[in-house]
Amino acid sequence: MKIPFNWGTGILIAIVIFMIFIISLGIYMITRPNDLIKKDYYEDEIKQLQKP
């Protein structure tokens, strides 16, 4: 059985590819280490500013 390729099929393929891209990007961002996020961010900033 051959699927007819018209503009609707093209839009569907584009949407599916976009959804896969967004989901993979979200998974990538969730699994990245977040070393820059700290609970004592402001205290560390003050210590950094007071260094000569």
Helix content: 55-70%
What is the residue-mean pLDDT, rounded to a whole number? 88
Count every beta strand, where a strand is a DSSP E run of 2 or more residues. Answer: 0
Intertermini distance:
74 Å
Structure annotation, total helices: 2
Q: Estimate nothing, just give the exact number of structural domains.
A: 1
Q: In oligomeric terms, what are we looking at?
A: single chain
Structural class by SSE content: mainly alpha
- What fraction of the residues are assigned to beta strands by DSSP? under 5%
Give the ordered list of helices and strands: HH
Radius of gyration from the alpha-carbon trace, in angstroms: 23 Å
**Principal-axes shape call:** rod-shaped
What does the model show?
- This protein has 52 residues and is mostly helical.
- The chain has one domain.
- 67% of the residues lie in helices and 0% in strands.
- The chain is built from two helices and no strands.
- It has helices at residues 7-31, 41-50.
- The longest helix is centred in the middle third of the chain and has 25 residues, at 7-31.
- The chain is rod-shaped, with a radius of gyration of 23 Å.
- It starts with 6 loop residues before the first helix and ends with a helix.
- The mean pLDDT is 88.
What descriptors fit this protein?
mainly alpha; 2 helices; 67% helix; 0% strand; rod-shaped
Write a brief caption for the model.
About 65% of the residues lie in helices and about 0% in strands. It has helices at about 5-30, 40-50.
